[in-house]
Design a protein that fits this description.
The chain is mainly β. 7% of the residues lie in helices and 44% in strands. The strands form six sheets. Strands 16, 17, 18, 19 and 20 form a five-stranded antiparallel sheet that branches. Strands 1-23-22-21 form a four-stranded antiparallel sheet. The chain has a four-stranded antiparallel sheet with strand order 2-3-6-7, with no helix packed on it. Strand 8 and strand 9 form a beta hairpin. The longest helix is centred in the N-terminal third of the chain and has 22 residues.
């Protein structure tokens, strides 16, 4: 009836006024559901790659003349040189949805083209990358029709390996020689890795970069080429939680329907013995909610892992994994309605997929 509709509308208006003026914040529930019938998408055993290890992918729409023509994963690929744990340099391969115009639509049977030499789009150059290029995270910027790839430039020095967070850009990601290197972007730190970009063109900048692989730091940029890091830690490890040993960036922050962002991070804890000598870490995924208006503010942090290695190929049991007990998320595709298809590395050997669902479960008062 009209009176019932008026009452419901009045209650809605009152709720909106309270949220805007009294200072309430949504509380979120975030869950993960594996897809592709809990099978790996891509690996040597599956006949989908010529490389021994294919993992830690980034996601991007692939465009031609401004039009989306395919979906792609930028994959860290490398070969085992001496079984079971010695490996060669990593390269970045680009594998497309198969067929390209079908995208990743059938979540029970996600199809990718095969990874081979022809799919290598980025590989090591120069002294600062003599140990390989690793763990890409990619953002496409519509404003300048450019792909921004943040990756680890690994350098083998005399008695140590040094990792530096570096940037490369292109308008044509499938063409290997089109990538322009901009070098390490956090030069004030000896060691830097894992940069996830929050693009803020719609807000007029600045843009934010969440980076790090022990604690997470936050940097900002106006030109997307030079970055300044805030002096304080953005996200710390927690001694009594699943993220006690380290926290590391996941994919770029994901905008929610209420304007805030879901940010998925990776983490590790000790206490999980494995066949790999002197290794007892377990990698899990976690999440935070970032304020859409002030990304420096974290509104909520999970108490339990979002995703943990439980399947044989995630634990590195079948096939034998390069690094046991690892799930590691770097790629996410928005599906709408606060759902996201994520792709993750498993045991540093194969790629899996899951759907992440974000729900608002309550509101709490901001103090």
């Amino acid at each position: 009836t009209q009176s019932t509709w008026d009452k419901d509308m009045l209650n809605l208006i009152i709720l909106i006024w309270v949220l805007l003026n009294v200072g309430y914040c949504a509380q979120y529930k975030v869950t993960a559901q594996r897809v592709n019938k809990e099978r790996p998408l891509c690996g040597l055993k599956e006949g989908k790659s010529i490389y021994s290890c294919n993992y830690n992918p980034a996601f991007a729409d692939l465009r031609k003349d401004g039009k989306k023509v395919a979906e792609g994963l930028f994959v860290r690929s490398q070969n085992i040189t001496k079984p079971p744990y010695d490996v060669g340099k990593s390269v970045v391969t680009l594998v497309e949805s198969s067929p390209p115009n079908k995208f990743f639509e059938d979540l029970d049977d996600i199809k990718l083209n095969k990874i081979d030499e022809s799919t290598v789009v980025f590989e090591a150059e120069g002294r600062e990358e003599n140990y390989g290029v690793e763990d890409p995270r990619v953002v496409y910027r519509e404003k300048d029709e450019t792909y921004y790839m943040f990756y680890t430039a690994a350098e083998q020095k005399k008695d140590e390996v040094v990792a530096r967070l570096a940037l490369a850009t292109t308008k044509t990601p499938k063409i290997k020689n089109s990538w322009v290197r901009h070098g390490p972007i956090i030069p004030e730190f000896k060691w830097s890795k894992s940069g996830a970009l929050l693009l803020r063109d719609d807000m007029g900048g600045p843009h934010y970069l969440i980076w790090g692989d022990d604690n997470l730091r936050l940097a900002f940029s106006y030109d997307l080429l030079s970055y300044r890091t805030f002096p304080t830690i953005y996200l710390k490890t927690r001694k009594d939680h699943f993220d006690s040993e380290l926290v590391e960036s996941g994919p770029p922050p994901l905008r929610l329907s209420d304007g805030n962002y879901l940010f998925i991070y990776n983490s590790a804890r000790k206490g999980f013995p494995s066949p790999r000598p002197n290794y007892d870490l377990q990698y899990n995924a976690g999440w935070i909610i970032i304020d859409g208006r002030e990304p420096q503010r974290i509104l909520q942090r999970c108490e339990e892992p979002l995703l943990s290695p439980v399947l044989k190929w995630e634990k590195g049991e079948d096939p034998l994994g390069l690094v046991p007990n690892v799930v590691f998320i770097e790629a996410a595709k928005p599906l709408g309605n606060d759902k996201f298809l994520v792709f993750y590395g498993a045991a540093d050997t194969v790629i899996g997929a899951a759907v992440i669902t974000v729900e608002t479960v309550s509101y709490t008062h901001l103090t």
